[in-house]
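Risk mitigation, structural track. In case the binding assays with adenosine-5'-triphosphate fail to produce interpretable data, a predicted complex structure has been prepared as a fallback.
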Amino acid sequence: LERTFSIIKPDATERNLTGAINAVIEKAGLRIVAQKRIRMTREQAETFYAVHRERPFFGELVDFMVSGPVVVQVLEGEGAIAKYREVMGATNPANAAEGTIRKLFAKSVGENSVHGSDAPETAAVEIAQFFAGNEIV
Ligand code: ATP
Ligand code: MG
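Fallback model:
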């Protein structure tokens, strides 16, 4: 079974949406095999989003990710990476399909409630940044 890395972002934890988002995840057939609520450090956020370092929104993105608690997760299932991106919906909630997490809950293109890995290589790197192997069950 494939694994993907997920973050429930500060805009969602702030509005007490962790359970509602987990319900959408589980209803889609993905299993939450690791989960913890943390306050990301600025260094962790900068490392996590290093591929976006040159983008104009990088500073805003890092400020947002450290602005409140996040829930980091590992999700497991058949085709978990693609399935979770489908469940999340488009980056900009204005373009997200009905029933997706971002359509249901996101506030804006920046404060868009969730992150999901975009490929097997990035999933492996992202999972390893936040979880030890024995924390994933
Ligand atoms: P994520 O990587 O969080 O799953 P994504 O892959 O759909 O989202 P990316 O293009 O990788 O989108 O951008 C990473 C994150 O950066 C977005 O989820 C969003 O929080 C933020 N972001 C992207 N575009 C913008 C923008 N134009 N303005 C502000 N923030 C943005
Ligand atoms: Mg991305």
